[in-house]
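Following up on my earlier thread - several people asked me to post the actual chain instead of describing it. Fair enough. Here it is, all 88 residues.
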Amino acid sequence: MLSIAISAALVMIAMAMALNLWRLAKGPSAPDRILALDTLSINTIALVMLIGLGATSYNFEAALLIAMMGFVGTVALCKFLLGGDIIE
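Reply from S.P.:
Thanks for posting it. Predicted structure:
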């Protein structure tokens, strides 16, 4: 029963990632693309955690690293769009 739920969740996350990639490629403006990247990182975290349900605990650390890098990347891109300079 759990394997069916995991398979269904993997399919749904894969569809969400495909839609995020489509928005990343087609997004009419830069903020739309940044939002697509942020959502893609969140979906990647969900995918890593879902795959790691039966595996080692290293998947949790990988998900934390993806979360930190996604947050820093989103903040840096937004700051670049607002001011044109990341490091003051």
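The CA atoms of residues 12 and 18 lie 10 Å apart. That should answer part of your original question.
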